[in-house]
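re: the backbone from monday

yeah here it is again, tokenized this time
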């Protein structure tokens, strides 16, 4: 009888421990006028942020992405046309994209069970 109780307790504890697996956990988040970023586990979401480039100006967008698992896609879209796209972006050294046409760009970030982080800044 003790063996059955012991097995039941172990099964219950294991069930509790596993019930949290697969859920997104965000440990930090930045959402400013010129930056967006997160550190997380198992994140599946889509996020968008508008970037405006004035007449006669250019904007440099710096991407820093860490991938520990899952996938992350990033893109910059202007007037319905894709200006830049990166699919299933791996961990990288920072890379930049220069926006040199005036107008409004939409930064799109799509994660699928992605664990890691992104830090995207522009100026």
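seq for it, each position gets an aa:
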């Amino acid at each position: 009888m003790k063996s059955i109780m012991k097995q039941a307790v172990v099964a219950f504890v294991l069930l509790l421990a596993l019930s949290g697996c697969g859920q997104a956990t965000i440990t930090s988040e930045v959402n400013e006028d010129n930056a967006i970023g997160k550190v997380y586990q198992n994140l599946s979401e889509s996020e968008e942020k508008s970037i405006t480039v004035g007449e006669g100006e250019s904007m440099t967008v710096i991407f820093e992405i860490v991938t520990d698992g899952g996938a992350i896609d990033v893109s910059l879209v202007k007037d319905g046309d894709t200006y830049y796209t990166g699919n299933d972006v791996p961990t990288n050294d920072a890379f930049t994209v220069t926006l040199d046409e005036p107008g409004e760009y939409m930064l799109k970030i799509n994660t699928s069970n992605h664990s890691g982080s992104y830090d995207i800044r522009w100026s």
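The two ends are 68 Å apart (CA to CA). The mean pLDDT is 86.
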